[in-house]
Amino acid sequence: NPVTRLADYQPPAFLVPDTRLDVDLRDGETRVTAHLKLERNPARADRPDELVLDGDHLDLRSVVLDGRELAPGDDYRLEGPRLIIPGVPEAFSLTTEVRIEPEKNTALEGLYRSNGMYCTQCEAEGFRRITFFPDRPDVLSRFTTTIHADKGAYPLLLSNGNPVDAGDEADGRHFATWEDPFPKPCYLFALVAGDLACLADTFTTASGRDVALRLYAEHRDLDKLDHAMDSLKRSMAWDEKVFGREYDLDIFQIVAVSHFNMGAMENKGLNIFNTSCVLAHPATTTDAGFERVESVVAHEYFHNWSGNRVTCRDWFQLSLKEGFTVFRDQEFSSDMNSRAVVRVENVDFLVNHQFPEDQGPMAHPVRPAEYQKIDNFYTLTVYEKGAEIVRMQSQLLGAEDFRRATDLYFERFDGQAVTCDDFVACMEQVSGLDLAQFKRWYAQAGTPVLTVEDEYVDGEYRLTFEQHTPPTPGQPDKAPLMVPVKLALLDGEGRALPLDDQGRKETVVILREARETRAFPVPARPTPSLLRGFSAPVSLRYDFDERQLNTLLAHDSDGFCRWDAAQRLYFAALARVVDGGETPADQVARLTPVIEQVIARADEDPAQAALLLTLPTENAVGDRHTPLHPQRVHAAVSGLRATLGEALADAWWRLAEGLRESDYQGDGAAMGRRRLRQVALGYLAAAAGAGQVDPEPLVAHLSDTLAAPTCMTEELGALRALVHNRLPGHDAALKAFGERWKDEPLVMDQWFGVQATVPGADTVDRAEALLAHPAFEWTLPNRVRAVIATLVNANPSAFHAPDGSGYRLFARALKKLDGINPQIAARLANGGARLKRLEPGLAQQLGDALRDLRPGASANLAEVLDRILD
Ligand code: DPP
Ligand code: ZN
């Protein structure tokens, strides 16, 4: 496959100041006519006079240049998927007509059908499946779009910008014209035609303009749009207040679509969302689902400035908009909810998902230097690590300067396509800081390891920091990074000690060298509270003893450090079981005082207590043991959970009963209580499932919940507890749940997902049966993710079944999906990324299964397979 390199970037040869699209939707015969105004780009000194337009899966019918119809062969040629017209003038108009087949488009890129509606997804390179165009983010054009369709089947016709015209046409058809006054790259183009229900509202901007808000979904889902609308209005107000960004069109629309590759898409004025990221109702959506809707609605809305008004020069700069926008949505969620809890959730996600990516075969810099398919780089590294890089800059500058710098960025680059360097330059200009070394964060892949050693001598506490970033594919040697380490020092009672003459109790050490020492005059050897707030995305190595960890967990004012201390205690206990020959029962005496202490304070913040009481996942534990023996890890984690469930059964019961609600409440405090209750039930169910306590009272309790649940969090939690622990009645409960929710696809995704995550190798057979279930659809990404991605990524004891059956299912699924939707296949293939860490027997089987896929794989899938296998 051809490789695209950042180093080869050239400005576009031609600009397209104006684009008029005419889309005639007819089942089986959709016609797209594009009228483009083109002109030579003065920034290209070499003045190429050949026009090259991207296209893909297009049936070209005619090409007209300045009113003259061109002849194929003589006047233009098709080279692979591209349209090439030699000898074009300085400025000209070009009209092309193509036929496309949205009905057959299962890749879900470009224009396609989903449940009877037409919709689009153009980022990153889907627009070329709609018409011939310079499909790159640095070509910004003013779009006017006219859609024609059957009025009965598609009463609603939407595109970007403002509606300017509409009317009836012959044969029961009609049209609508939309005009977007803001020049935009074609990846932000969108079109929707369908019969949809609408929730309407208004937002008045800070400067007093009324913006019409319209949320669309299938009619049956109209009652599930309120939370998204509420989240949208809060996002709009927040962006005005915190970033000074006002909305710019007269209308903002969101459409919910069932078949969608990503979570959502920030098309100008017409966001298109995966139903899973916009629909929410307490009866059908868990609390986690509500949180996700809030953050994704905010994320896509915030893109209107960080992404749309200021966009990316090329796809290597993807994190310019994504890292920054994730940072913005994280800050929004922090302001809407508990900041400490949101921070821990974000760090948990980064550490347990992005770190493994950064330490495996797919490791790449936040600004990659090359790719085969850009679709494969919509990654946790670009998004989540990218957000941490923006967060570090916001911390280095301080709130006020950071705001001045983002103001400068938006003002200076409004309407332009720019780079990560441009962003950092604004940070530097406002603050006077030199961020040249800091920029290595964008260029170097891998998780830096920060090793800290300490000594206490003559009234001085010395911390020595050593940073090292391990080699990653294509990057053997790394230079030291600029690493901000926020820290405090706690005395024997857990109180923070003054660190300087002004009595400050927290400081930020900014590391620049491979090895540096800092000294603090304190009266006695303290407990270090390091990397507070997770001030840099590094893997911290410090040899905490158990007493120090207990001190941090009990007394630290920093939410991250408390959670990290709990995690370290759990990891240490699990390591003693996995590698040390100890049993889960051996850990009880050491862990129960810690857990009891967290439970005793749980009232203060139930959501935080839930986080503190949650054991690391099997993947997280497995990533700390080489070679990886997934079954051994599974036995340790599930054994510890069951044993703690038994040892603390009374405490878990008190929590489970005490937190049980009689009526549903939707506020954050109630969500926190439900979360903690689920953790308690999870421990009890593990103990019951392992036969360590009598299952009867718990089964009765869970059955009660299932008979009259207050909300989906409770209902699904009870189902999961029964099914995952194979408690009496689990089959009947599954059947009843499946029957009750058979007409709610998002709930059925959960039903599939619960079954695909039952621990144990026999779940592979169960997953095979799910794939044959009448409600399973290979063309529906949410369903594919619910069964296959959860099995592969969240059920190690099944995926790594000793007989290799999980791998064979995985390979068959990849092959099948690759023919349907290569983006989804490639994303799923990342589930094989732990291959080289597996014990040799499993590694051999997984490698064999994946190697068989290479012949005939799509470009998307081939790139991931190559990385994993080579
Ligand atoms: N829709 C994806 C996102 O918002 C890609 N832009 O992150
Ligand atoms: Zn985004």
From TrEMBL:
Residues in Peptidase M1 membrane alanine aminopeptidase domain copies: 228-441
Gene3D superfamilies linked to this entry: 2.60.40.1840, 3.30.2010.30, Neutral Protease Domain 2, Peptidase M1, alanyl aminopeptidase, C-terminal domain, tricorn interacting facor f3 domain
Domain Peptidase M1 alanyl aminopeptidase C-terminal: start-end pairs: 547-869
Catalytic activity: Release of an N-terminal amino acid, Xaa-|-Yaa- from a peptide, amide or arylamide. Xaa is preferably Ala, but may be most amino acids including Pro (slow action). When a terminal hydrophobic residue is followed by a prolyl residue, the two may be released as an intact Xaa-Pro dipeptide
The Peptidase M1 alanyl aminopeptidase Ig-like fold domain, residue ranges: 446-543
EC number assigned by the record: 3.4.11.2
Alphabetized InterPro entries for the sequence: Aminopeptidase_N-like_N (IPR045357), Aminopeptidase_N-like_N_sf (IPR042097), PepN_Ig-like_sf (IPR038438), Peptidase_M1 (IPR001930), Peptidase_M1_dom (IPR014782), Peptidase_M1_pepN (IPR012779), Peptidase_M1_pepN_C (IPR024601), Peptidase_M1_pepN_C_sf (IPR037144)
A GO BP annotation: proteolysis
Cofactor: Zn(2+)
Listed GO MF terms: alanyl aminopeptidase activity; metallopeptidase activity; zinc ion binding
Keyword Mitochondrion assigned: no
Domain of life: Bacteria
Hydrolase keyword on record: yes
Domain spans labelled Aminopeptidase N-like N-terminal: 97-188
NCBIfam families per the UniProt record, alphabetical: pepN_proteo (TIGR02414)
The family this protein is said to belong to: Belongs to the peptidase M1 family.
Biological function: Aminopeptidase N is involved in the degradation of intracellular peptides generated by protein breakdown during normal growth as well as in response to nutrient starvation.
Name of the protein: Aminopeptidase N
Organism (species): Alloalcanivorax marinus
